[in-house]
């Protein structure tokens, strides 16, 4: 007994073209976006989207018959289970089986979602509403985790799904209620779909253009609320930026804006080996990432300048340096021109959210050495490095932060200031350097700022006293004995957009965050001829009594302050920002620092030549070795074998399986094995003689994958693209273009089919093939023009066409029927009829049917569907 049908083939084809294909296109877009965020998807979005497309199309066809959903779905689940078991039985290797199972799981999930959607669109009236809500909810989750909180970003992410939701609900209902026997219903539904798309896009554009100001207001209000939940608030400025992978980096510029976004998450932990003379009391230092030496007056942005004179900024990429090997730049020490009261200080930085390529340390840093993170701390810290700095004895977080009436800190500061009073002027300073670091814009607004600086420092004789006078001015009180200036994360902006925000801060509202205080200080110092620049990084607060010398750095400690140049002493830190009580009194960290980290006896750096995941062995071409902290190098690589059976494999993003290591990768392998403890290098040892002393295979405890430079550049390019602001008008027009392109493609499908049939009819030489191709082309052509055969016999239909258009279709039809149903050969007259029929017939129809009529009827997709769909009445 044949299984009954729920839908005709005409309706099934309509569901596939108008429902399944747009849904699949949207899913391709969704999985493409997901692949850019989740490495486990392995950038295989094309295949993953095809899983969903196969599921939805298969379900629409399958459930056009009277199959029960629960029964058939159980069968599908059983098939999945059998497939999963087969993977476990036949996959070779532990990690091969793992990745195969992940791929199968993705297939099962996406195919099942497609299958459920196909069933819903085919059988269930209200499924489109559920499906639309599910997509919108899913997009809300994705946006909340991966997107900047901007009105443009929100609109750009939700507009296409909203348009799709309205489309799928509208179209599904049209198809459900379609009258398959109505001749012109196809044209009826297409007109309504095109009209619906135009109206929908016009409404969306109109709403967004009209209420743009309201969207911005919501962005600001919600954005500030969002900042309280440690998410990046893109509606305001932040001293740090959130990267695509979720990590945090310092910014190479900062804008003066109406509000500052602060998160509360832990960014990194540092051990700083800097103590006062008693060797017990910690002496904290600010951690510096960038120097801002330029100011864009148009955007009111402080920026870095790689061409700054006497560049003493050390910016290595720790993720590119082999573990335990060091990168040093002694030029930055020379560029400080500092010889007085300086010493070398060491710090260790353990990254929590800090980006793998980010380097931050007290100034002036000149040394970077990646170090491993112990097994027990790998969940908390992603990577670590050791830094060395050429530090001034006059720098201290105690000294530079405003003491706010603390007598002990004031005494510390006074001793420091007394030393700096030895500098009377800058006459000995290089003119190029002085001109650069005292440059400031020249207009009326900055003239008023200069006048204020001259008034404040009128009684100050030395550069440091001028600096103190500016600091004291920000700490002064008004006539009501209230603080003249206040710290605020939301200082507001001038009523005139182009007005100077620094002048607004200094002369009107007197509220601001660190960038305002540092910027105003910078220009007041430069206005009176004191070389200065802004330093950006993290302020250091000593809140821990349990582990002296350890410091925890949170997002809200990202900071900007001023550095002043003193000949002989170099750049000295000053901070004029009014203390932010919330930051100073942040909860005391209760984490355990990574104590008692091991030093490696043997470290090998090179390129992988082979990996055995079963025996847990790696073969490595080695060209550089550290053995008991002694460095050995060679120009000719030596191949050695490594035993990684107990080794931890890592990248800068965290721990990875051994299967991640591939031939050709650059890795560094470190060993803490006791077997190497007593094997010491001799003075005359070379790399080859050292390797001869090391056991074969060499026992390895830690392997770090060094990412290739081209891959990092690709990531940087992707990050730069991700940081570009979204133009929502472009997004909407792109959505309109996609919808319009899809509509045009659908409408032109009959023309493409016709061109294929037309070319086949004209190109056929054989009589029988010519007759078949000509008949097929003619029938399709007439069908598209609205002259379908329906239940009329072939000869009757041909005669009707002849009567209307004065053609010879009936005689050709007789010959065609003879070829189709008889084995008798054609006569010469019949062969001539076949060869001479097609071209004159088409030309005759074209002359008698106006072009406008032909064009409007040819884009009727439902005539095409009807042509390929058997008639209900036989």
Q: Care to give the gist of this entry?
A:
47% of the residues lie in helices and 17% in strands.
Q: How much strand content do the residues show?
A: 15-25%
- Counting helices, strands and paired strands, the structural category is alpha+beta
Low-confidence stretches: 145-149, 220-235, 710-715, 717-728
Gyration radius from CA atoms, angstroms: 38 Å
- Spatial order of strands in the largest sheet: 24-23-27-25-20-21-22-26
**How is the main sheet built?**
8 strands, mixed
Mean pLDDT across all amino acids = 80
Identify the overall geometry: elongated
Q: Please report the distance between the alpha carbons of the first and last residues.
A: 20 Å
Number of H- or I-type helical stretches: 26
Helix content: 40-55%
Strand tally = 27
Which oligomeric state applies? single chain
List the SSEs and their pairings.
Blueprint: H1 9-35, H2 45-62, H3 69-90, H4 94-123, H5 127-146, H6 151-176, H7 185-210, H8 212-227, E1 237-238, E2 240-242, E3 248-250, E4 253-255, E5 260-261, E6 266-272, E7 287-292, E8 294-296, E9 301-303, E10 327-328, H9 331-336, E11 342-351, E12 365-371, E13 383-392, H10 397-400, H11 407-420, H12 431-437, H13 444-456, H14 463-475, E14 486-487, H15 501-509, E15 511-512, H16 514-527, E16 532-538, E17 550-554, E18 558-566, E19 570-574, H17 581-584, E20 602-612, E21 617-627, E22 630-643, E23 648-651, E24 654-655, E25 666-671, H18 687-693, E26 698-699, E27 702-706, H19 709-723, H20 728-763, H21 767-784, H22 794-805, H23 809-821, H24 828-848, H25 851-858, H26 861-868
Parallel strand pairs: 1-5, 14-15, 22-26, 23-27
Antiparallel strand pairs: 2-3, 4-9, 6-11, 6-17, 7-16, 8-9, 10-12, 11-13, 12-13, 16-18, 18-19, 20-21, 20-25, 21-22, 23-24, 25-27
